[in-house]
Design brief:
By secondary structure, this protein is α/β, with parallel strands linked by helices. The chain has one domain: HAD superfamily/HAD-like (Rossmann fold, 3-Layer(aba) Sandwich). It is 39% helix and 15% strand. It is built from 7 helices and 7 strands. Strands 5-6-7 form a 3-stranded parallel β-sheet. A two-stranded antiparallel sheet has the order 1-2. The N and C termini lie far apart (33 Å).
Length: 165
């Protein structure tokens, strides 16, 4: 999935650290995060391909046990092709969630192309599914639930939490 506009609402906050380094902060949705953990726990490899680079994203991706973290790559297709080759995945076994026009070439190559509700019109036109939720506001959670339900795994997640009451 993309990051800015998908895992976040696209807002970027900059803070000047005492060291003089400019730090970029991003707000990530907690419900999106837990749904990514559920995907991993159910055997789904997750990851991001982002045009921007962020140390905070790198740390969050590790916390969420993402398999693939590619940053600083506006042209995403070569990175996707590399991931396919290294992982042995086939295009029809992959999904991508995007929001802006640089995501369109990749959306056209994956098995399930998802656009967030606030995606550009051209991105929505290239998608198989458009979420009801906007980027950074539960769109990833929505897509994760669709996938887990389609694989018959959603009830197992619900039962796991019911059992812990």
């Amino acid at each position: 999935m993309d990051v800015d506009g998908v895992l976040t609402d696209g807002s970027l906050f900059h803070w000047l650290a005492p060291t003089g380094k400019l730090v970029e902060l991003k707000g990530l949705n907690a419900q999106d995060g837990i749904s990514l953990v559920w995907l991993v726990e159910n055997g789904v490899k997750t990851g991001v391909i982002s045009g921007r680079s962020s140390e905070g994203l790198e740390a969050r991706a590790r916390e969420l046990r993402m398999s693939f973290v590619v940053q600083g790559k506006v042209h995403k297709v070569p990175e996707y092709e590399r991931i396919l080759k290294e992982s042995g995945l086939r295009p029809e076994e992959t999904a991508f969630i995007g929001d802006d026009i640089q995501d369109i070439p990749l959306l056209r190559r994956v098995g399930w192309a998802v656009a967030v509700a606030n995606a550009r019109p051209e991105v929505k036109a290239a998608a198989d599914t458009v979420t009801r939720a906007s980027g950074g506001r539960g769109a990833v959670r929505e897509a994760a639930e669709i996938l887990l339900k389609s694989q018959g795994r959603w009830d197992g997640i619900l039962k796991k939490f019911e059992a812990s009451r």
